[in-house]
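Narrative summary of target 7.
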Amino acid sequence: MERSRIAVAGASGLIGSALVRSLTADGHEVVRLVRRAPGGADEVRWDPEREYVDTAGLAGCDVVVNLAGAGVGDRRWTPEYKRRIRDSRVLGTAALARAVTSLDQAPRVFVNGSAIGVYGDTGDRVVDESAPPGEGFLPSLCVEWESAAAPVREAGVRTVFARTGLVVARGGGAWGRLFPLFRAGLGGRMGDGRQYWSYIALHDEVAAIRHLIDTEGLSGPFNLTAPEPLTNREITEAMGRVLRRPTRFAVPAQVLRAALGEMAGDVLGSQRVVPKRLLESGFGFAFPGIEDALRAA
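Modeled conformation, tokenized:
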């Protein structure tokens, strides 16, 4: 891709910061959306939950990437925090969509974050992008989240939804919490360990987003997960091998429910999600296997 001006919301997050580093290293001009007073020409003020965007700062952007949202696993799902999870995504996306469609010259592509949580608990069933939404908080959230970008698509801008799985990275997300436990020899399966986890290495996550930006004609939802999901038990065993630590401990389902509340359903639920459309589009994974992804992290 030729040098472009690219706006990124959620630029300080795990995925967003890695994406910004990758884009900047390749010479692209990156504009970060920030919630404080801008510190320079490369920052644009916005307030997603109040649906405010300094639209003028987006002028000239060829690409807009929205990865903003309160962390789903950061704290217990109280009614107040669930509202924050929703508003930070749905209201923020709606605000960006309005800002983008009001520009004199619209960007050529809009990439909006989403999650494989849209499918709900799929058990052993393999699902791709053609599967309908599931039931529960996360599926309904993802449906609203993606729907909020409708004005951009209707304005003729190529719109892509990056339905991300569990990102294998040392610096944050689920694995940011798992790595210290396993290094201390306290790691183990969760529940019965039979639930499927659909993961992706952070390197491949960033590469996939860039692939979606660069490849003309790609639009709609894309699952950003490794080609072969594994069970929690299989991933636990792989972490033991890579980190050379025992994995004797197991966290019973009832303990997880007591500790995490409603969020435990996401940990114990099974999602066997495959990246059918991403593979069909010609994307190649650098770290497709779990041991590869763990070593990369």
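The mean pLDDT is 91.
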